[in-house]
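Thread title: Can someone regenerate the structure for this chain?

I was given the following input by a collaborator and told the matching structure tokens would be attached. They weren't. Posting the sequence so someone can regenerate them.
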Amino acid sequence: MKRQLTAAIGLAALVAGAVGCSSGGTAGQDAAASAAAETGTVTVWLMGEAQTTWPELVQQVNDEFAAKYPKAELHLRYQTWKDKVGNLDEALKANSAPDVVELGNTETMKYILNGSLAPVDRSSYDNNETWIRGLVDTCTYQDKLFCVPYYAGARVALYNSAMFKEATGSEAVPATEDELLSALDRVQSDKRGQKSFSALYLPGPYWYAAMSYVAAYGGSIARFDDTGRWHGTLSEPKSRQGVTHFIGLVKKYNHGDLKADELDQAAVLGKHRTAMLYGNGWEVAGALEPLSGDPKLKDVLRVTTMPGPNGKPLPSFIGGSDLAVTAGSKVQDLAKDWVRMFTSAKSQQVLADKDTLPNNLTQLAPLKSKPATAAAANAVPDAWFTPVAPGWAAIEKQKVLVEMLDDILAGASVEAATTAADARIDQLINNPS
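Best answer:
Regenerated them for you:
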């Protein structure tokens, strides 16, 4: 069920038009007085992570906003990833869209191209010169910025160190994939009495993981060519190598439902049904939840770099979220100032202190040597991203990559499935969603 929270908080913003200075007044006093006189209602949609993982950041920013703008109101609602896009599309059609909306960085281009987002001034935001490039690119179109980076994410290996030690004598994950697979074989042998146990839990439809293996071999999902159009490249030899490698790992190690996606993989780790998975570092918290996992694993679960083919780390998808102001907002100045506060250096430090990757390289740097965040933080510079193309949202919505993987696991050849996927990509990728 979608969790929603609505908060009404007194706020205010800049008054349009100059305020006359008294003989003893200052520019700062005039600005403060102008803000204190502003009225309006700002509606903000954030995803559930803000409510469950960094609620103190939300409270801190709302308090700051309320102090500056005491006569306006803030309506804060939380969305789920499953429902947000549908809810936003309906709200945009009904002219009832929020003033500020959190977007996953694969979702932004759709709303930029259909005119739903207002441009923003990059210079107004903290650390804008060191924002993570993979986030900035998803907010940029024709040299204009349409959203502000919020936080980043990179997938890494999450593993049960006790299982590894029991099977191999070492709590550490081996540095190379060949050594890792040998260790996983020993773990699987130790658990051979548990039919549903997967030494490495790789869900069959997990296309983010599959495309990481594609990237490891130098392949790609699609390419922008010299004719000015995108076209699918999954049927190219390097891409097929990556898909084949991924499918091989799924078939060998996943002893669960091959059609189950990755959304509940933290529970698989938390219920001792796997020794390792490939996911976001914050999924450890889900594995420790009393209902879905096991809090006793607190000192057992670890995060590290995922070994990939060819003796190199597995390239990671650069995930994350951005914050955008909708083009139809009647209170854009208020909305942009709330975003400024929510992405300030002070706010980003709250995220960093919670082992969430901040939106900029300056505050990311200390996390590269912190055990809980080192793997993800060091993966950011070399991470891959989905095509920043007009029709990418439609490709995701129609589950082109998921269905390709399902078809292969159901018996289709990699050659046939990747060729079919490219044909569908070609139909969708150049057309705004």
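Residues 217 and 260 are 26 Å apart (CA to CA).
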